[in-house]
Each structure stands twice: as structure tokens, then as C-alpha cells.
Amino acid sequence: MNAPRQTLLKSILLGLLLSACTSNTSTSMERNTEQTPAAHPTVGPLEAVYQGPTPWVGIVVSDAGRAFVLYPRPAGEAGPRIAELRNGQPEPYPSAAWNDWQPGAPTAGKFVRANSLRIGPDGLLWVVDTGTAQMGGPVLPGGPKLVAIDLQTNQVVRTLPLTDVLKPNSFVDDLRLAGNTIYLTDAGVPALIVLDKQTGRGRRVLENDASTTARRPLYAEGTALTTPAGQPVRVHADQLEVSPDGRLLYFQTASGPLYRIETRYLLNPQLPAAELSRHVQLFFDTPSTGGTAIDAAGNLYVADANHQRILKITPDAQATTLLEDKHLLWPDALWIDNHGNLWIPAAQLNRLARLHGGVDAFQPPVFIYKLPIGAEPFRS
């Protein structure tokens, strides 16, 4: 990790995080003063679709109605990392073999620690594997990778290694696809990663920039998240979305705010780091966020972990509250299906001892909800 080692911070999403950075990006948003959205008419009833005993941090639903979920397994626990829900029950996907990695075993052909999944515009199910055995652990040789699965054959068709674009304490977090480009966030060593989908080669950009580095506390249910040692939890570059026209990339740390940059600057390898940073724009002062989504009209959806609500932010930065509900206990990675439903996994991550000052307040079961919003999905 290249940033100054001033504060050791742990979270369920990543192990070792740093809060210090230098950047030309404005630092005026360091205070926890997120914007307050206007009220929004009820868009539809919140429906609990699935429930289970273990936190899940992501769900995607295919056009055929197949549901896939992600279990973070922060301490390297046994059990599936990726599963398909069949009749409400999780079955390891794409196979039991991909989900049975054990510490000390080879990492090839195994999910070490899956952290994100999504169905891309190519119709493949893409999975981000951090390649870390457990939170706070180092990146294992050959562990970090992107895995693409054909939903028709249920076979892995591509594996893109990520070792060359990561640092020893990196935590590759999330991904979005746009044409031949894959965008990723590094929540361990603050940066965005721009990857060529065809060749697998990539570059780190905005490393240790103010826009990719967490600079304020992370809140949920009105309480700041802390480690068992009482240290504040900070999650660096985390959520990201590509605009439907591919022109803009939105990104943020888990504690906000939300920035954007024109992708043409990210795709220019000749642009100096300082100049690239100057093209970053503050878009919206988001609250502590579990996950995001974007629809075909370019509206962003933000899972507000602190106020247990879902925000809708238009392309011109006008926000409304779609829903506020006490059941949204750490709403995580969002998904819009082809029927206009917003899928919301409620993970209760903030109640786990590792994020709750060492006190376990987790209360199973956890739920996955869906909310009719009438939006057309955009796949990225």
C-alpha cells in the first residue's frame, strides 16, 4: 500500500484500508453533510422475496428470472461464495468445485473471496474475486481475478487475472463493463482500475486521489461503524456506475460523496495523473452507501445505509427518496431487472462485530427485497 500508513482500518468488505491521501480534487466534502433529497411518491410495495441465515451483499436476476447471490465470507468461512437460488435455496454456482476453496490450497479455478457479481451487456455473469483469504489478509498469488460465466452452459468461459494491477494490500471491490473496457474500484489501496476486456491489460488511475479515498466516517442506522479496537471504518473506492451513453463514470467511496469523470480522460493513458484529477467533478453529496444501480435513462439509485432508504438521483443531480423503510438494514448492491423491479439485499453488515465495535448485533434472517420502480434496466 503506497499511501501513508496513518490509520489501520478494517471492514467486512476489506481488511486493510488507509485514509490519508493527496490530490488536486476539492476537499470541501470532508464533512458528513450529505445533501437532503426531496420526498418522492411511493413507487410500489416493498416485497420480501428471499430470506436466509447468512449475510448476502449482492443479487442479480437474469432476463429468464434466474437469481444469483453473493456471500462475502469475510473470515474465509466454508460455504458457497456464489450461489443460484433455486426454490429459495442456494446452490453453489457455477459448481461446487468453484466454491470449495480452502486456505493453503491453489487458487486457480476457485473463488477465494467473491466480492461483486453482475450480468454484463454481453449476457455473461461476471464475478470479482478479491483473492484475499480473509479480511485484512494479503492478496494471494493468482487469487485476484475476474470470472465470466456463460448462463446458457453454466460454464466459466473467461478468467482475467488481476494481480498485475493490484498492490499487496489491494481489495478489488466492484466492476462495470462498457464496450471493450472494464472499470474496477480498489477499496484497499484507493484507485480506479481501467482494464482492456480483450487483452486483460489494465492501468491504475486516480490512485490516492481525494475522490477515491475515504475521508469521513461510515454510518449506518445513525451510528458510526467502528472496528473491535474502536477505530473508524473507512472503505475507499467502492461503488461505480457507467452512464448509458458510456460518456461518464460515476464513482465514490462507501461514505460518499459521489464523483463523476468523462471516460475519455480515463481511457487516455498519456494523461498525467494531476491533469486527470482536475477533470474529476463532484456530482452529489451522497450518504453512507451500501450499493448503487443506474437505469437506461441515466438515473442513479443509491442505497442509503444510514437512513435505511433508497434515493433516486437524476442525471442533473436532483434527488428524491423512493422509499424509506426500517427493514432496509444495510441495503447493499442493487439490481434492476427487466420487469422494472429494484432488487435490494439487506445484509446487516453494520451489525456484525467487526463493524460494530466488537459487539455482535446481527439478527438473522437476512432478506432480499424487490421494489417496483418502473425503470428500464441498463446493463454495464
Name its key features:
five-stranded mixed sheet, 3% helix, 6-blade_b-propeller_TolB-like, 380 residues, four-stranded antiparallel sheet, Neuraminidase, Gluconolactonase, 2 helices, mainly beta
Structural notes for this entry:
This protein is 3% helix and 35% strand. With 380 residues, it is mostly beta strands. It has a single domain, classed as TolB, C-terminal domain (Neuraminidase), CATH 2.120.10.30. A hairpin with a 4-residue loop joins strand 12 and strand 13 (191-196). Residues 1-25 form the signal peptide.
In a nutshell, what does this entry contain?
The protein is an all-beta fold and 380 residues long. Helices cover 3% and strands 35% of the residues.
Describe how the helices and strands are arranged:
Blueprint: E1 38-39, E2 47-52, E3 58-61, E4 67-70, E5 82-86, E6 89-92, E7 114-119, E8 125-129, E9 145-150, E10 155-161, E11 172-178, E12 181-186, E13 191-196, E14 202-205, E15 219-220, E16 223-224, E17 237-242, E18 248-253, E19 258-262, H1 263-266, H2 273-278, E20 281-284, E21 289-294, E22 300-304, E23 309-313, E24 319-324, E25 335-336, E26 341-346, E27 366-372
Parallel strand pairs: 1-24
Antiparallel strand pairs: 2-27, 3-4, 4-5, 5-6, 7-8, 8-9, 9-10, 11-12, 12-13, 13-14, 15-16, 17-18, 18-19, 19-20, 21-22, 22-23, 23-24, 25-26, 26-27
